[in-house]
């Protein structure tokens, strides 16, 4: 099983469309930067055939320190969420 990282993605992009690895790296980094910026600004990212990224808000809640058993409050937070498209789900099956 292989792990795909930014470097490997850029190399594949460079080979596939015939551009330099430097240009491909810039393209990949630009895409990820735009996704990050859009989510940070509260927007949604919808990539047809792949999936949707959005930010969800998590309410404050009670938790327990497993080492001491002490109750504590976990602060409210925001977290990115990804929902795979039907096409991606079918491809993975």
From TrEMBL:
One Pfam match, given by its short name, reads Bac_DNA_binding
Family membership noted in the UniProt record? Belongs to the bacterial histone-like protein family.
Q: Which InterPro entries match?
A: Hist_DNA-bd, Histone-like_DNA-bd_CS, IHF-like_DNA-bd_dom_sf
- Example GO biological process term? chromosome condensation
Matching entries from SMART domains are given as: BHL
The record ties this protein, via CDD domains, to: HU
Task: Recall the GO molecular function terms of this protein's record.
Answer: DNA binding; structural constituent of chromatin
Name the SUPFAM superfamilies on file: IHF-like DNA-binding proteins (SSF47729)
The name this protein carries in UniProt is: DNA-binding protein HU-beta
Source organism per entry reads: Breznakia blatticola
Keyword field: DNA condensation, DNA-binding
């Amino acid at each position: 099983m292989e792990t795909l990282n930014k470097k490997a993605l850029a190399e594949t992009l460079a080979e596939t469309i015939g551009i330099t690895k430097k240009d491909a790296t810039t393209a990949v980094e630009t895409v990820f930067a735009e996704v990050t910026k859009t989510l940070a600004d509260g927007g949604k990212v919808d990539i047809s055939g792949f999936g949707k990224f959005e930010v969800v808000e998590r309410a404050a809640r009670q938790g327990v320190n497993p080492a001491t058993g002490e109750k504590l409050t976990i602060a409210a937070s925001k977290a990115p969420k990804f929902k795979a498209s039907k096409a991606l789900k079918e491809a993975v099956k």
